[in-house]
Each structure stands twice: as C-alpha cells, then as structure tokens.
Amino acid sequence: KATARKKFPQLAANDGDLKYCGVFYEAMHNDARTNLAIALSASEHGAATANYVSMTALTTDGNGVANGIEAKDALTGEAFRIDARRVVFAGG
C-alpha cells in the first residue's frame, strides 16, 4: 500500500478504501489469466459470476438509480434479471 500511495498520490483521498493495487501494462500480461483470477477472487468473496452472458438492458429503481441488469445466456438463449447493489460498466 505504501508503494501504491507513493506512485499514485491520488489514491490517498480514498485511503480507507484501498485494499489492493495492481498495475498492468498493455501487452505485458496474459489478460485471459488476469480476467480469470479476478473472476475467481470475486467469486471467493461472494460475487456471482457468469460466462457467455450478455447485458441486454440496465434496470433502475424509482429514482433512476441503477439496481441491476437484464441479461441473456448466449448458450441457451434464456433471458433473466440480475439484481445488484452496484453496477459497474468495465469495457475496454
């Protein structure tokens, strides 16, 4: 954490939230293994994970705050809803 704070001083503002810091450089790591490690770690901490699932719509509460997604299983075609406390769009 100390090294992360030194290299990235902007992290100090949210210091209480810092649990782990990793720096990945483009084309210098195996992204498939990294993605799998992140998914497994999230699963170990209680997250539900899925593969071959696409988001088809964002769901919101009465105030317009995101509270989940509508999803579709690419293998079976089954449509379903995933409720969440937080929704993170992480594309790239």
Note down, in words, how this protein is organized:
The chain is α+β, with helices and mostly antiparallel strands and 92 residues long. The chain has a three-stranded antiparallel beta sheet, with no helix packed on it. A hairpin with a 5-residue loop joins strand 1 and strand 2. The chain is extended and about 45 Å long. The mean pLDDT is 84.
List the helices and strands and how they pair.
Blueprint: H1 2-7, H2 31-44, E1 53-60, E2 66-73, E3 79-83
Antiparallel strand pairs: 1-2, 2-3
Which geometry do the CA atoms define? extended
Largest sheet: 3 strands, antiparallel
Low-confidence stretches: none
Say how many strands there are.
Answer: 3
